[in-house]
Amino acid sequence: MEPDKKLLERWQAAEILLFGGSAGSFKILFRIVKELSETFGKTVILVIHRKKNFYSEIEKLFAENSRMLMREIEDKDILKKNTMYIAPANYHTLIEYGGYFSLDVSEPVWYSKPSIDVTFESAAEVYGGKCVAILLSGANQDGANGLLKIRESGGLTIAQNPEDAEMPEMPRSAINNGGAEYVLTQEEIFQLLLS
């Protein structure tokens, strides 16, 4: 199924693209990292649940296979176009007015640090309708409230189809709370990303 015209227009107008993923999202995220071009035209942020000691392997694998400039977020980094950022383990990543990141050491949210909700909610405040967020496979509800905030602020929100996700709970939570404006399969997500 081709993306509809309204979806494409909003996609093309966006400046920032956020992905949230947990259990079962690695394969799709790895494919995203490999396929997005160095002239993609948006800032890309990956917020992935993972254990601290597992972090370097993901970061290394992604960096070796990314066509886009890729970096782990550091406190006060400026958000740049055509750059893919990965939220560091053991911190919450926030986006601040003025277009820079800040890292926070407060308690985990949904047992997770980084929390997808924390990043998505800050993106909603700063970017509003210039934001696209895609919530992928995961085994808890992190990201559902953040996705709803982005939708309420005029941003484009997408959840992976739960029937297509290895762990359906995370995208299903976003569908159930009204946070997901669109529900797309992996292939439909890629059609949009590469359009």
Structural overview:
The protein is of the alpha/beta class and 195 residues long. It has one domain: Methylesterase CheB, C-terminal domain (Rossmann fold). It contains seven helices and nine strands. The strands form two sheets. A seven-stranded parallel sheet has the order 3-4-2-1-7-8-9, sandwiched between helices. Helix 4 packs parallel to helix 5 (144-152) and helix 5 packs parallel to helix 6. The longest helix is centred in the middle third of the chain and has 12 residues, at 116-127. The chain is globular and about 40 Å long. Its EC number is 3.1.1.61. Keywords: Chemotaxis, Hydrolase. It is an enzyme of class 3 (hydrolase).
Question: SSE string, helix = H, strand = E?
Answer: HEHEHEEEEHEHEHEH
Over the alpha carbons, how many angstroms does the gyration radius reach? 15 Å
CATH architecture: 3-Layer(aba) Sandwich
In total, the number of domains comes to 1
By helix and strand content, what is the structural category? alpha/beta
Sheet with the most strands? Answer: 7 strands, parallel
Overall average pLDDT: 93
The CATH top-level class label: Alpha Beta
